[in-house]
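Contributing new complexes? Match this layout with S-adenosylmethionine.
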Amino acid sequence: MAYLGNPKHTIAVLQKYNFSFQKKFGQNFLIDPHVLDKIISAAQIQKDDFVLEIGPGIGTMTQYLCEHAREVAAVEIDKNLIPILEETLKEYHNVEVIHQDILKMDLAALVKEKNEGKPIKVVANLPYYITTPIIMGLFESNVPIEKITVMVQKEVADRMQSGPGGKEYGALSLAVQYYAEPKIAANVPPNCFMPRPSVGSAVICLKRHKQPPVAVDDEKLLFSVIRASFQQRRKTLANGLNHAPDISLSKEQIQECIEAVGVPVNIRGEALTLTQFAELSNRIHRMAGA
Ligand code: SAM
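Output block (do not edit by hand):
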């Protein structure tokens, strides 16, 4: 078996098919077996797992996934990679390559068909240009997911894991932490990819909470409040909320809600925890409904 984690094999396959990398698809293929081992062990893949891989590329990580999991579905947008995947994965009978845009897929139907609707694991070296829509799409779709293990830009991994007060803390940290417990498993330098990306990367595990850690009356409003609070980082929380299109309270009412959470009225959004954001959004919800 010609494992593609070996860069020589990757180069041979690319040359055989005269493959040209497409920047618009965020194509940076892994060429380091140690990194592949780390991803597989961080993802805790077991023999009875069904794994969804997003963007298999030429199948480098897919080979590893097929060897560790019960079944793999690999969703790839680039039609030029489909014949390559047919060759590089021909020895595996537990994989289905799906030629599709991951953002347009009916994942609930896939999970129902392949895993009887039970929680799945997602593993990917993500195309960086759509990291946030992919991850938020997975969470918001309510598809049963146990764990997401993904390679992302290092800076994005830091933002996902960051807590209040830090400069990386923002809407993405709160959204991710509402759905999951993030943990960076490895930092990965550019020379582990072909071609080399211009930024550092990291593998992050997002273990989905069974229940969100906070109780909110209206999830959509929580995310509107969070987004509005970080829209302009240098503004106070009150000012940000005052300009939010879907919050219809007066300036005074917003100030009253903020004070009721027990924080100063001139506080900035970056100082609030998820629990405080949840309480604030519940107060706004109740005041707007009163
Ligand atoms: N998994 C491979 C590896 O590690 O070598 C390739 C990773 S590369 C960073 C990202 C892959 O995602 C590419 O193969 C790219 O064509 C694919 N891709 C980009 N946008 C996609 C989309 N919307 N849906 C599915 N696959 C996509």
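Reviewers usually confirm one structural detail per submission. For this one: Strands lie at 29-30, 50-54, 71-76, 95-99, 120-125, 145-153, 180-188, 193-194, 201-208.
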